Amino acid sequence: MPGRCLACEPGRYQDSSTLDSDVDGDGNKIVDCKICPAGKYSVGTSVDGKRLALTCTICEAGRYQSLSEQTSCLLCADVILNSDSVVEGATSSRVCTCGSGFYDTRRYINLSDSTELDPASPDRRRCKECPKVGTDTAVDCKLPGNTRSTLVALRGFYRDNEKTVKFFKCKDVEFPGTDPATSTQCLGGGVNTQSLRKLVVIENANVSSARSNASTPKSQCAEGRIGPLCNKCGPFGSYLEMVHPNITGRTYCASCKSLEAKFDYQALSTLLGIFLLFAFW
What we know:
Layout: E1 12-13, E2 34-35, E3 40-41, E4 57-58, E5 63-64, E6 74-75, H1 76-79, E7 83-84, E8 97-98, E9 102-104, E10 127-129, E11 132-133, E12 136-137, E13 146-147, E14 157-158, E15 168-169, E16 198-203, E17 206-211, E18 225-226, E19 232-233, E20 239-243, E21 251-255, H2 256-262, H3 265-279
Parallel strand pairs: 9-13
Antiparallel strand pairs: 1-2, 3-4, 5-6, 7-8, 9-10, 11-12, 14-15, 16-17, 18-19, 20-21
């Protein structure tokens, strides 16, 4: 008597035509479908047999599943409000990072913490909207994965250190109606050398960091600019504040070496001496 087709339960699949009278390679009777592993899911075979569970579906980006034999994946935003993920087939809630326009408010992030988050008790405070100065967006938060320490200032804005989330508008663009993107003092970027955005991806206890390909300045200040809000030229003797040749009312810091190259001071002194000699002859 021929066997019957196996109907796969939710969370399981069968990738080949199988009857309940068939046997596997070891001669054992096949009575069950295969179990979908973590990071994948299956809704199973429909009652009428029209929907077949031929394979497991990989969890989409922004979702994860830490358990096997499941019928769906969990949404990152359900365990961390305003979070997202770029990882497909994720097996842990640890891939969930703050989404575009938000940053992780935690001062310290323990990358070795393997605790799975509970959808029944979501974290509503971790991801906060990226800082603004008044109504102006001060931070480049287009990509997900921003943390407190990796926030990148937009041109025209400045913050004192990576621990603070208080940003300021730079002096040369603080007047009402002035476009911050025209600042010649603050070019935007990270604090000191901690400038590049990190997108921390943690999968199966392996930690990898993917930095954005965007060209991000290693300093918030333009060349020769130092001090809070990049409002001074320095170090002293190396840079001199000059009137900007192209933008009215703005200045820039000129390298003293470049200025010396433009003028032959010895020749100028000689000409001045000759002039004075003839002037008082």
